[in-house]
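Much of the work behind modern protein science is quiet bookkeeping, done one molecule at a time. The fold becomes a row of whole numbers, each drawn from a learned catalogue of backbone shapes. The protein below has been through that process, and both of its lines are reproduced in full.
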Amino acid sequence: MNKINKLPTYQRAIAKGHLGSGGASYEDLSKPIIAIVNSWNEIVPGHCHLRELAEHVKQGVLAAGGFPLEFNTIAICDGIAQGHNGMKYALPSRELIADSIEAMINGHGIFDGMVMLCSCDKIVPAMLMAAARINIPTAMITGGPMVNQIKPFESKKARQQFLAGEISEKELFKTTVDYYPTAGICPFLGTANTMCIVTEALGMALPGSATVHALNPRRQELAEETGRAIMDLVKKGIRPRDIMTKAAFDNAMAVVLAMGGSLNTVLHLPAIAYEAGVEVSYNDFDQISRKAPLITRIVPNSQEYTVADLEPVGGIPVIMRELTPILDTTVLTVNGRTLKENLTGVAKADGKVIRPLTNAFSPEGGIAVLRGNLAPEGAIVKSSAVAKDMWQFSGPAKVFDSEDDCMAAMEEGGVASGNVVIIRYEGPVGGPGMREMHRATEVLAKIGNVAIITDGRYSGASGGLAIGYLSPEAAEGGPIALVRDGDRISIDISERRLTWEIAKAELTKRAAEYKAKVKQGEESNFLRQYGRSTSSSAKGAVRRRF
């Protein structure tokens, strides 16, 4: 018996009548009702094909004896939101999306299961958070990567040429469309693709689904298979928390680290785990990184391969097969089988795009957690995207209280080679909203031999010596709030150290003189509320319990 038939007699009749007004037949409503949770819109490239994909999910649900009903959530494109005040809304939208799904599912009380369709940076983790929070049978299908027509370095070169005034806006537009030619997820291993890979690695999406190209007919087949799979989950009573265990999170972290995935996973995996009643911390990332070798190098970890190159060599199942010695293969997945069963018969690494463990690019994974007197709770760097000659770096601090101040100074020549640029008051509380510093990393790359440290965050596409997610943040009285121009900062990725070279007496004096900085002029009530209610980045920037 489905949920609608568990409602009180009178309310059940009224609910069925309302659903009938929308086109459902009386017979339809005796079947398990499956929510098709879709983040389709016409703005975000990773989402604009999801309306059609949803129809294939519905076919699978119908064929397996269920009745699908679709509703939408919002989705923000981080690429469009970059470099202006709009980026403050990207991370808070994660909570908004998760809350909206909870409201729709629990508010109506009629659904037996969910299929979630999503792509991109905050939307995928938001839906995983909602799945764990609501905990009714759920399967996910992601949008898949687009297939770039030019190499990553060509797109990067065009951006630098435009910044230098060497090509026009129209020329940059054409090159950008050659790199992002169709619907689908941007081709680099940014947060969008990383989180779709996480979804598969967690066991919440069908094996092999994360890297199938967006417009490949196989993705439509996977959508229908996902529609069938949800009906099996409903029948067996398998729920997200049965799948998203601590062992599954450890597996997902190992995959991310072995690929040099997006730094934003250090925000999203703890947040998803929090909703599932599991604890994931910076420490987990660091410990697993030490035993998860880097076995593939996708842009921005190199400029040769994109995520689209993974599918022809077997995708995530091949990576997980290679990582079997450090994975828990007894975990359950969304098709009702264990990871061990899913990996039976999977091909070996091709040795070029994906390397075997015995010939890894690096003995450690792609993310390192740095600690020291500047970052007592930790700070994160994508070590796989940092040149080895930059793993040890020391220089005078150049301090800015916002990304905007930093960008203005760079335009006026206020940042020099050898500087350690500090961008603070950009964390979840101080931003508010913790916007990405991707544009700053692009512009600073022109200067060269520069490090950036921020309590804000980075795009998954960012590279270079960019250290972020520093906690505690400046707005909560973290040591970064006391740094001044000229202070020497030393970085040692190998030793996992981030050291602020300051005498104890001077530190005591500054702490006594410190007055908390309050940003003026934030007109958005939504962002103000977010800043007051959110936790630190080290805790996943989840909402505080009230």
